[in-house]
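Course assignment 3, question 2. Fill in each field.
Student: A.L.
Task: Predict the tertiary structure for the chain below.
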Amino acid sequence: MSVQVPNGVVDIAVADEAEAVRVARQYLSYFQGRKGHEKKDRMFRLAEQWRLPLVLFAEGGGGRGSDTDNLSSNSDTFYRLPALSGLVLQWLPPELEQRIGQATLEGMDREQLAPSALPETRRQALQARVTTALQRQGHTPDHRLEWRRSRDGQTPGPNAFALPGGTVVVTDELVTLLEGADDTLLGVIGHELGHVQHRHGMRLLTQTGLLTLVVGAVVGDYTSLLTGAPLLLAQGDYSRTFEREADDAAITLLQANGVSPLVMLTLFERLATLPGYRQAQADAQGWGIAIASHPPDEERVARFRAAAAMAAGLRSAP
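Answer field:
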Protein backbone atom coordinates (compact mmCIF):
# COMPACT_ATOMS: atom_id res chain seq x y z
CA MET A 1 0.00 0.00 0.00
CA SER A 2 1.05 3.64 -0.31
CA VAL A 3 0.60 6.53 2.08
CA GLN A 4 0.39 10.08 0.78
CA VAL A 5 2.55 12.49 2.77
CA PRO A 6 3.70 16.04 2.15
CA ASN A 7 6.20 16.30 -0.69
CA GLY A 8 5.96 12.67 -1.73
CA VAL A 9 4.49 9.19 -1.46
CA VAL A 10 6.05 6.50 0.66
CA ASP A 11 5.71 2.78 0.05
CA ILE A 12 4.53 0.72 3.04
CA ALA A 13 4.63 -3.08 3.10
CA VAL A 14 2.11 -4.55 5.55
CA ALA A 15 0.11 -7.63 6.55
CA ASP A 16 0.62 -10.62 4.23
CA GLU A 17 3.45 -8.97 2.33
CA ALA A 18 6.58 -8.29 4.42
CA GLU A 19 4.83 -7.23 7.63
CA ALA A 20 7.24 -4.35 7.95
CA VAL A 21 7.42 -0.65 7.33
CA ARG A 22 9.94 0.18 4.64
CA VAL A 23 11.28 3.70 4.44
CA ALA A 24 12.80 3.97 0.99
CA ARG A 25 15.89 6.07 0.45
CA GLN A 26 14.36 7.96 -2.43
CA TYR A 27 11.55 9.09 -0.15
CA LEU A 28 13.96 10.53 2.37
CA SER A 29 16.27 12.03 -0.21
CA TYR A 30 13.86 14.71 -1.41
CA PHE A 31 14.88 16.89 1.49
CA GLN A 32 17.67 16.77 4.00
CA GLY A 33 17.75 18.48 7.36
CA ARG A 34 14.45 19.59 8.86
CA LYS A 35 12.24 18.32 6.06
CA GLY A 36 13.97 14.98 6.17
CA HIS A 37 13.34 14.71 9.91
CA GLU A 38 9.67 15.60 9.41
CA LYS A 39 9.35 12.73 6.94
CA LYS A 40 11.07 10.27 9.27
CA ASP A 41 8.88 11.46 12.14
CA ARG A 42 5.83 10.52 10.11
CA MET A 43 7.15 7.06 9.26
CA PHE A 44 8.24 6.26 12.79
CA ARG A 45 4.81 7.26 14.09
CA LEU A 46 3.18 4.90 11.59
CA ALA A 47 5.50 2.06 12.56
CA GLU A 48 4.68 2.57 16.23
CA GLN A 49 0.94 2.93 15.56
CA TRP A 50 0.77 -0.28 13.52
CA ARG A 51 3.23 -2.06 15.84
CA LEU A 52 5.34 -3.22 12.92
CA PRO A 53 9.10 -3.63 12.53
CA LEU A 54 10.75 -0.89 10.56
CA VAL A 55 13.41 -1.39 7.92
CA LEU A 56 15.27 1.81 7.13
CA PHE A 57 17.31 2.05 3.95
CA ALA A 58 19.55 5.09 4.20
CA GLU A 59 22.86 6.45 3.07
CA GLY A 60 25.25 9.03 4.43
CA GLY A 61 25.73 12.41 2.89
CA GLY A 62 26.48 16.02 3.56
CA GLY A 63 23.96 18.77 3.91
CA ARG A 64 23.08 21.30 1.31
CA GLY A 65 24.51 24.75 1.49
CA SER A 66 21.01 26.21 1.21
CA ASP A 67 19.74 24.39 4.31
CA THR A 68 18.46 26.75 6.99
CA ASP A 69 17.02 24.19 9.35
CA ASN A 70 17.45 25.56 12.87
CA LEU A 71 16.65 21.98 13.79
CA SER A 72 16.18 21.31 17.47
CA SER A 73 15.60 18.17 19.49
CA ASN A 74 11.85 18.80 19.20
CA SER A 75 11.86 16.39 16.26
CA ASP A 76 10.28 13.02 17.04
CA THR A 77 13.23 11.35 15.34
CA PHE A 78 15.47 11.90 18.36
CA TYR A 79 13.39 9.70 20.65
CA ARG A 80 10.95 7.70 18.52
CA LEU A 81 13.49 5.50 16.75
CA PRO A 82 14.97 4.18 20.04
CA ALA A 83 11.41 3.65 21.31
CA LEU A 84 10.73 1.33 18.38
CA SER A 85 13.27 -1.10 19.79
CA GLY A 86 10.58 -2.51 22.07
CA LEU A 87 8.45 -3.38 19.04
CA VAL A 88 11.33 -5.22 17.41
CA LEU A 89 11.75 -7.50 20.43
CA GLN A 90 8.34 -9.10 19.96
CA TRP A 91 9.60 -10.56 16.69
CA LEU A 92 12.69 -12.20 18.18
CA PRO A 93 12.53 -15.78 19.51
CA PRO A 94 13.50 -16.20 23.19
CA GLU A 95 16.10 -18.82 22.31
CA LEU A 96 17.94 -16.22 20.22
CA GLU A 97 18.20 -13.93 23.25
CA GLN A 98 19.63 -16.79 25.30
CA ARG A 99 22.16 -17.64 22.57
CA ILE A 100 23.30 -14.01 22.45
CA GLY A 101 23.79 -13.90 26.21
CA GLN A 102 25.67 -17.19 26.21
CA ALA A 103 27.92 -16.12 23.32
CA THR A 104 28.69 -12.84 25.08
CA LEU A 105 29.59 -14.57 28.35
CA GLU A 106 31.78 -17.10 26.54
CA GLY A 107 33.68 -14.25 24.91
CA MET A 108 34.16 -12.52 28.26
CA ASP A 109 35.33 -15.80 29.81
CA ARG A 110 37.98 -16.15 27.14
CA GLU A 111 39.29 -12.62 27.51
CA GLN A 112 38.68 -11.09 30.93
CA LEU A 113 36.77 -13.36 33.30
CA ALA A 114 37.83 -16.45 35.25
CA PRO A 115 35.89 -18.96 37.37
CA SER A 116 34.85 -17.72 40.79
CA ALA A 117 37.08 -18.51 43.72
CA LEU A 118 34.33 -17.87 46.28
CA PRO A 119 33.57 -20.83 48.55
CA GLU A 120 30.65 -22.87 47.29
CA THR A 121 28.83 -22.35 50.59
CA ARG A 122 29.07 -18.56 50.19
CA ARG A 123 27.69 -18.66 46.65
CA GLN A 124 24.86 -20.94 47.70
CA ALA A 125 23.97 -18.64 50.61
CA LEU A 126 23.86 -15.59 48.32
CA GLN A 127 21.78 -17.47 45.76
CA ALA A 128 19.34 -18.52 48.48
CA ARG A 129 19.09 -14.91 49.70
CA VAL A 130 18.19 -13.69 46.23
CA THR A 131 15.65 -16.49 45.71
CA THR A 132 13.93 -15.76 49.02
CA ALA A 133 13.90 -12.01 48.34
CA LEU A 134 12.29 -12.52 44.93
CA GLN A 135 9.65 -14.80 46.43
CA ARG A 136 8.76 -12.14 48.99
CA GLN A 137 8.49 -9.61 46.20
CA GLY A 138 6.08 -11.88 44.36
CA HIS A 139 7.79 -11.52 40.99
CA THR A 140 10.68 -13.64 39.80
CA PRO A 141 12.09 -12.85 36.36
CA ASP A 142 13.71 -15.79 34.61
CA HIS A 143 17.39 -15.50 35.38
CA ARG A 144 20.60 -17.34 36.16
CA LEU A 145 23.26 -16.07 38.54
CA GLU A 146 26.86 -16.59 37.40
CA TRP A 147 29.88 -15.97 39.62
CA ARG A 148 33.18 -14.87 38.11
CA ARG A 149 36.40 -13.08 39.04
CA SER A 150 38.59 -10.73 37.02
CA ARG A 151 41.26 -12.67 35.15
CA ASP A 152 43.86 -9.94 35.66
CA GLY A 153 42.59 -8.95 39.10
CA GLN A 154 41.58 -5.49 37.86
CA THR A 155 38.99 -5.52 35.06
CA PRO A 156 36.05 -5.53 35.46
CA GLY A 157 36.90 -5.47 39.17
CA PRO A 158 34.07 -5.18 41.71
CA ASN A 159 31.14 -5.30 39.33
CA ALA A 160 27.90 -6.91 38.21
CA PHE A 161 26.14 -6.91 34.87
CA ALA A 162 23.19 -8.51 33.11
CA LEU A 163 23.24 -10.18 29.69
CA PRO A 164 20.40 -10.98 27.28
CA GLY A 165 18.57 -14.16 28.15
CA GLY A 166 18.57 -13.58 31.91
CA THR A 167 22.21 -14.14 32.88
CA VAL A 168 23.42 -11.95 35.77
CA VAL A 169 27.17 -12.01 36.42
CA VAL A 170 28.55 -11.00 39.83
CA THR A 171 32.29 -10.77 40.44
CA ASP A 172 34.16 -12.05 43.47
CA GLU A 173 35.65 -8.60 43.88
CA LEU A 174 32.18 -7.10 44.35
CA VAL A 175 31.27 -9.70 46.97
CA THR A 176 34.51 -8.93 48.80
CA LEU A 177 33.99 -5.18 48.56
CA LEU A 178 30.51 -5.53 50.05
CA GLU A 179 31.52 -7.93 52.81
CA GLY A 180 29.16 -7.39 55.73
CA ALA A 181 26.71 -5.51 53.47
CA ASP A 182 24.65 -8.31 51.96
CA ASP A 183 21.62 -6.02 51.76
CA THR A 184 23.58 -3.78 49.41
CA LEU A 185 24.65 -6.77 47.34
CA LEU A 186 20.99 -7.80 47.12
CA GLY A 187 20.17 -4.33 45.82
CA VAL A 188 22.90 -4.56 43.19
CA ILE A 189 21.58 -7.91 42.00
CA GLY A 190 18.06 -6.46 42.06
CA HIS A 191 19.31 -3.65 39.81
CA GLU A 192 20.69 -6.18 37.34
CA LEU A 193 17.46 -8.19 37.48
CA GLY A 194 15.71 -4.96 36.51
CA HIS A 195 17.81 -4.94 33.34
CA VAL A 196 16.73 -8.54 32.78
CA GLN A 197 13.06 -7.80 33.42
CA HIS A 198 13.00 -4.91 30.96
CA ARG A 199 15.23 -6.71 28.43
CA HIS A 200 17.62 -3.78 28.37
CA GLY A 201 20.42 -5.80 26.80
CA MET A 202 18.30 -6.64 23.77
CA ARG A 203 16.89 -3.14 23.62
CA LEU A 204 20.44 -1.80 23.59
CA LEU A 205 21.22 -4.10 20.68
CA THR A 206 18.13 -3.04 18.74
CA GLN A 207 19.00 0.62 19.21
CA THR A 208 22.60 0.19 18.09
CA GLY A 209 21.99 -2.40 15.40
CA LEU A 210 18.34 -1.89 14.51
CA LEU A 211 18.58 -2.67 10.80
CA THR A 212 20.41 -5.97 11.31
CA LEU A 213 17.88 -7.05 13.93
CA VAL A 214 14.83 -6.24 11.86
CA VAL A 215 16.14 -7.86 8.70
CA GLY A 216 16.98 -10.94 10.75
CA ALA A 217 13.48 -10.96 12.25
CA VAL A 218 11.89 -10.75 8.80
CA VAL A 219 14.02 -13.32 6.97
CA GLY A 220 14.99 -15.54 9.89
CA ASP A 221 18.76 -15.16 9.45
CA TYR A 222 20.50 -14.12 12.67
CA THR A 223 24.07 -14.97 11.71
CA SER A 224 25.34 -11.41 11.63
CA LEU A 225 23.50 -10.59 14.85
CA LEU A 226 25.03 -13.50 16.75
CA THR A 227 28.45 -12.48 15.46
CA GLY A 228 28.15 -8.79 16.25
CA ALA A 229 26.03 -8.80 19.43
CA PRO A 230 28.85 -9.58 21.91
CA LEU A 231 30.91 -6.69 20.54
CA LEU A 232 27.93 -4.31 20.60
CA LEU A 233 27.14 -5.27 24.18
CA ALA A 234 30.76 -4.93 25.25
CA GLN A 235 30.99 -1.43 23.82
CA GLY A 236 27.48 -0.36 24.75
CA ASP A 237 26.25 1.75 27.60
CA TYR A 238 22.79 1.81 29.12
CA SER A 239 20.78 5.00 28.77
CA ARG A 240 19.67 7.04 31.75
CA THR A 241 16.15 5.70 31.22
CA PHE A 242 17.38 2.12 31.43
CA GLU A 243 19.33 2.87 34.58
CA ARG A 244 16.31 4.53 36.18
CA GLU A 245 14.18 1.47 35.42
CA ALA A 246 16.83 -0.84 36.88
CA ASP A 247 17.22 1.35 39.97
CA ASP A 248 13.45 1.25 40.46
CA ALA A 249 13.58 -2.55 40.29
CA ALA A 250 16.27 -2.56 42.98
CA ILE A 251 14.21 -0.23 45.16
CA THR A 252 11.12 -2.42 44.77
CA LEU A 253 13.01 -5.59 45.68
CA LEU A 254 14.66 -4.01 48.72
CA GLN A 255 11.46 -2.49 50.07
CA ALA A 256 9.57 -5.75 49.56
CA ASN A 257 12.11 -7.26 51.94
CA GLY A 258 11.99 -4.46 54.50
CA VAL A 259 15.33 -2.96 53.47
CA SER A 260 15.88 0.77 52.97
CA PRO A 261 17.05 1.84 49.48
CA LEU A 262 19.73 3.87 51.26
CA VAL A 263 21.83 0.70 51.42
CA MET A 264 22.64 1.29 47.73
CA LEU A 265 24.73 4.30 48.72
CA THR A 266 27.11 1.90 50.44
CA LEU A 267 28.14 0.55 47.04
CA PHE A 268 29.14 3.95 45.73
CA GLU A 269 30.84 4.94 48.98
CA ARG A 270 33.00 1.82 49.07
CA LEU A 271 33.86 2.01 45.39
CA ALA A 272 35.05 5.58 45.89
CA THR A 273 37.53 4.44 48.56
CA LEU A 274 39.34 2.02 46.26
CA PRO A 275 42.85 3.16 45.29
CA GLY A 276 42.92 4.30 41.68
CA TYR A 277 39.20 3.67 41.25
CA ARG A 278 38.55 6.69 39.05
CA GLN A 279 41.45 5.80 36.78
CA ALA A 280 40.26 2.20 36.69
CA GLN A 281 36.89 3.44 35.51
CA ALA A 282 38.51 5.41 32.72
CA ASP A 283 40.52 2.34 31.68
CA ALA A 284 37.58 -0.08 31.86
CA GLN A 285 36.54 0.32 28.27
CA GLY A 286 33.92 -2.18 27.17
CA TRP A 287 32.13 -2.43 30.50
CA GLY A 288 29.53 0.30 30.05
CA ILE A 289 26.69 -2.07 30.94
CA ALA A 290 28.26 -2.98 34.31
CA ILE A 291 26.88 -1.18 37.36
CA ALA A 292 30.21 -0.01 38.79
CA SER A 293 31.90 0.96 35.52
CA HIS A 294 30.80 4.56 35.77
CA PRO A 295 30.27 6.81 38.78
CA PRO A 296 26.73 7.45 40.01
CA ASP A 297 25.24 10.77 39.08
CA GLU A 298 23.36 13.00 41.47
CA GLU A 299 20.04 11.96 39.99
CA ARG A 300 20.56 8.28 40.84
CA VAL A 301 21.70 9.01 44.38
CA ALA A 302 18.75 11.37 44.87
CA ARG A 303 16.42 8.63 43.58
CA PHE A 304 17.51 6.20 46.29
CA ARG A 305 17.27 8.90 48.95
CA ALA A 306 13.80 9.95 47.81
CA ALA A 307 12.53 6.37 47.82
CA ALA A 308 13.82 5.87 51.36
CA ALA A 309 12.29 9.16 52.53
CA MET A 310 8.94 8.30 50.99
CA ALA A 311 8.88 4.90 52.66
CA ALA A 312 9.81 6.45 56.00
CA GLY A 313 7.04 9.01 55.60
CA LEU A 314 4.47 6.32 54.88
CA ARG A 315 5.52 4.35 57.97
CA SER A 316 5.22 7.41 60.21
CA ALA A 317 1.84 8.46 58.83
CA PRO A 318 -1.08 7.96 61.25
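Instructor remarks: The mean pLDDT is 74. Residues 94-316 form one domain.
Grade: pending
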